[in-house]
Design a protein that fits this description.
Layout: H1 3-8, H2 25-32, H3 50-58, E1 63-64, E2 66-71, H4 77-80, E3 81-84, E4 88-91, H5 93-107, E5 112-113, E6 118-125, H6 136-146, E7 156-164, E8 171-177
Parallel strand pairs: 1-5, 6-7
Antiparallel strand pairs: 2-8, 3-4, 6-8
Amino acid sequence: MSKHNAALALKAEDRPGKPQERMTADEYRKAVGAPAKKAVVPRALPEPTPQDLVAMVAATWPAVDRLTIELPTPPGLNNAYANAVGRGRFKTPKAKQFEADATAILAGLNQKLKPETYRAHIVITRESPLADIDGRAKLILDVLAACGITADDKNCEKLEIEWRYRHPPGATVMLSRYAKRRAAA
């Protein structure tokens, strides 16, 4: 027994009730003069997000090996998140709008990818010559996972992303099962 617990332990004759009986937590608190345990105040559950609602419905959809989805063009990561003093890092209105539009499209998909490792090939319309391509995949993979279309973006074993030109704005996402090749032993 630690020194602290030994100081708090009571002798058998000092215990309420019969000496051989164990004390309840409330009896112990009262005997040592500790404050009463605070009552647990039930909190309301947070409202489910649109992605949560789609994910609940997507759990009943049939799983397929290949899936092609047309989504709106995601903003680059430079425009998706911002920092503010006292608020920390937060999503910008552009990122929130992309999530809302993509969630609306994914709600009517009625298919999901099997929850194994997968390969993602993303083709995005380039709307500006200054745009970078690498951060856009993150937003797409995150919204697919949040809506339950893929199990998690950590299961993406292979990612290919490329620009397309002279095409209406948007992104085409092609998902397929992917089994890693094992090195020869």
